[in-house]
Structure formats: structure tokens, C-alpha cells
Amino acid sequence: MLQGKKILLCVSGGIAVYKAAALTSKLSQAGHEVKVIMSRSAMEFVAPLTFQTLSRNDVYFDTFDEKNSKVIAHIDLADWADLILVAPATANIIGKMANGIADNMLTTTLLAATAPVWIAPAMNVHMYDHPAVKKNIQTLHEYGYQFIEPSEGFLACGYVGKGRLEEPEKIVQLISSFFQKEKDASLQGINVLVTAGPTIEKLDPVRYFSNKSTGKMGYAIAEEAVHMGAKVTLVSGPSHLPVPYGVEVIKVETAEEMFQAVTDRYDEQDLVIKSAAVADYRPAEIYGHKVKKQDGPLSVEMERTKDILKELGKRKTNQVLVGFAAETENVAEYAKSKLQAKNLDMIVSNNVNMEGSGFGTDTNRVAFHFKDGSVMELPMLSKKEVAKEILLKAEHLLKE
Ligand code: CTP
Predict the structure, then answer these.
(1) Is the minimum distance from the CB of 280 to ligand 1 under 6 angstroms?
(2) Deepest in the core among 44, 289, 302, 393, taking most CB within 10 A?
(3) Which residues of the chain fall below pLDDT 70?
(4) Strands 366-370 and 375-377
(5) pLDDT attached to residue 1
């Protein structure tokens, strides 16, 4: 549960004011601090004392009733809020807002606001459908205001249709997920490059050497990094997974192609996470024709590919480098030596022989190893959860 957000609830006059009282209570119960401004018409429906009691704060309705001589209330309230919610919003208040009218405490505060403003209309179905209201809503959309559309149902005026104030529980839910998203966007302005999947190294036109990686871990990291607000480039070996929304993908096949794609883009990155399973060897010769079978055994000479991560470690300037160590034995020991050899800030180790861990699974059991020798062991988690943990740690390293 997110706590401590400051919500300014602007209540204008319609029968749905009674729901705004329930909304105040639910917002407070969800841990938010609520302050309320009422229009004069709203006070015809419910007394300010109701909102004062539920919010445990003074209720504002008179621009000239300055409760604190040190501040100007409508500016102070506008600055105070993390989010301003107009609920219920009548056709009249929507019209005033769309036209920049500031003739009472509520509209004056709204005009001074820089915080996000959400509007939850409630009115008769025909009023909501009127071209003037529609035009005003459109104008407010263009100004960047968000709307919580009214729901359909029985209206106090006797009509059945669209015009009911959205239920308080739903509004609280929308607000909480808005703040959660804002919180998650902690990689705003950060360039992240992720590698994923296997590489394939051709022997001839019909055969290649590869490994069991599917790309699930790397794709999950790329997706989570986008959710956290980063600009994400995904350099991917062959994978059947859909490219996550908002990710720029560079498809490669061989270790050499991955080396080029990654090093070409390295300078502009803040964070590089190398979850790809890169081939360490490739056939020394790639045949242009299908290799025919012989009676005896076949030997294929293999040569080393470039170690991409090692090269990134050498060229590192300000980037945070995160590597992976897929092991089947001596996991911690090997991970530690890779961390040092490749000049990494963090390495994610896993035992690919363990059930629920490694290639192709939806879960992973990993440990994080850091330069100072510290180790953080995680329980079995979904790859999405592991991705999130990796990014939260990386974010911490970026700040350091
Ligand atoms: N890696 C890389 N280029 C390679 C091989 C590995 O960039 N040619 C990266 C992987 O993406 C991973 C890390 O190095 O982040 C460790 O990869 P891993 O396969 O576990 O280890 P190797 O360094 O290849 O060592 P070994 O095969 O001896 O375990």
C-alpha cells in the first residue's frame, strides 16, 4: 500500500456529493492525506462538517476566509497536492475549468494547480451528451487533464444511462495504481541495454551450434525496465518471444553480430544487463555447402568467439555493468571470479541444473554478487519478479 500521498478533493454540487464523502473516507483509509474544497452548491447537499470529520482537515469553500495569515490558501493548497481530484464534477465546473474561469475557492485553486488534475464527472445523461459539455471535456483533455468517465446505471434524476459518478472504491484503485506507476518510473531518463537469448553459430547451410536459452529472462528485464521509465534497447539472439511494448529490438544471430550491436551502442548507455547466453566457440570454418557424412567420426575445429562482456568491462566509463553466470557447480565461486575478470558491478548467478531455475522456465532462483564481496540470495521467484529485483539493485548502483 502506498502511503502519504496528498490528495486535494474538489467537490462540486450534485447529488453525487454523498459519494464524495465515502471517497474521502476510502482515500484516508488507503493512507492518503485528504484536504477538501467545496463549492457553495456542494454544501447544499452535504455539510462541510462531514468532510472535515472524514478527512480530519479543515474544509475550504471561501476564497476570502484565509485560515492561515502566512499563506494564501488557494495557492498553498494547489502547491500542496500530489494529485487533485474533482469529484463529482458538474457540467458547470467543467465549463468553468475549460474556460479559465476562477470565481470561487474551487475554480481559483484549480487554475493555480500544477499537480495532475483528475476529473470525475457526474450529471444527467443528456447533460453529459450535450455538445457544449463534450466540447469542454475535449478542451480539458487537450490541456492534459485526466477523466474518470462516469459509469452507466440508474441516475438520481430517474433516467438510466451514463452519468453516475464512478464508485469510490474504483477511484481509489485508479489513484493507487497511478502512484504505483509513478513510483515504478524510477529509471526515467536512463538508457538501458539488455541482451537476451542464445546465439547461433553456423557450421553449414543446414546446421548450427547453439544453446538452450529462450530469452525469457532478458525479455522480462527489458519489459520491466520500460515500466520503470527507462529507454530500452534489447539486443536479442533468436527467440520466439514477442518484443515487449516500448522496447527497441536489434535482432542478431551470432556472437560476433551481438558483439557489434552491443559495442556500437555502448557509449550512450547508463546500464547494460547481459543476460544472453553467448556462444564461447564457433566453427573455425563455415561451409558453403552441406557437410556430407563420412564413415568415420567427424571433427569440427572450433575457435573462440569474443567475450562481449569482458570487452565492455575494459571499455567501461560510467556504465553500470550487470552480468549473468549460468553454472552447474561451484556457483558462487565461479560467479565471483567472473565478476572480477569482467570488471562488473554485479553478477546474477544461477544453478541451471536446479529445478525451476535456468533455461526455458518461468521461474528462477538467483543470487546477486557485488564487488565488495557481498551476496544477496533470492528465493524462487518468477522471471518477472527477478527482473524487477535486478533493476532495483541496478538503480541503486546507478545512484551510487
Ligand atoms: N558473455 C559474453 N560473451 C561471451 C560469453 C559470455 O558477453 N562470449 C557474458 C554472458 O552474457 C554473461 C556472462 O558473460 O553475462 C557470463 O557468461 P557465462 O556463459 O556464464 O560464462 P563464460 O564467461 O562464458 O564462462 P564459462 O563458459 O567458463 O562459464
Answers:
(1) yes
(2) 393
(3) 1-3
(4) antiparallel
(5) 47
Contacts of 315 (CB under 8 A, 6+ apart): 263, 266
pLDDT of residue 3: 59
Whole-number Å distance, alpha carbon 258 to ligand 1 midpoint, is 13
For the entire predicted model, the pTM comes to: 0.67
What pLDDT does residue 157 have? Answer: 87
Q: Are 358 and 394 in contact (CB under 8 A)?
A: no
Domains of the chain: 6-178 (3.40.50.1950), 186-399 (3.40.50.10300)
Give yes or no for residue 309 CB within 6 A of ligand 1.
yes
307 lines ligand 1 (CB under 6 A): yes
Q: What grid cell was written down for 107?
A: 475554480
* Helices 216-227 and 383-399, axial angle in degrees (round to 10): 60
Q: Ligand 1 mean position to 348 CA, how many Å?
A: 12
| 3-state class (DSSP) for residue 303 | strand
Supply φ then ψ for residue 160, to 5 degrees. Answer: -115, 125
Going from the Cα of 207 to the center of ligand 1, the distance in angstroms, rounded, reads 23
Q: Which residues pair with 164 in a beta bridge?
A: 151
Q: Which amino acid makes up residue 234?
A: L
d(CA 9, CA 7): 6
Tens digits of residue pLDDT in 26-76:
999 999 999 999 999 999 999 999 999 999 999 999 999 998 999 999 999
Dihedral, CA of residue 97, residue 98, residue 102 and residue 105, to nearest 10: 0
Q: Does 256 sit in the ligand 1 pocket, CB within 6 Å?
A: no
**C-beta 232 within 6 A of ligand 1:** no
Residue bearing the CA closest to ligand 1, atom 4: 307
Counting atoms of ligand 1 from 1, which one is nearest the CA of 280? 8
Q: How far is the CA of 281 from the centre of ligand 1 (A)?
A: 11
305 CB neighbour count, 10 Å cutoff: 18
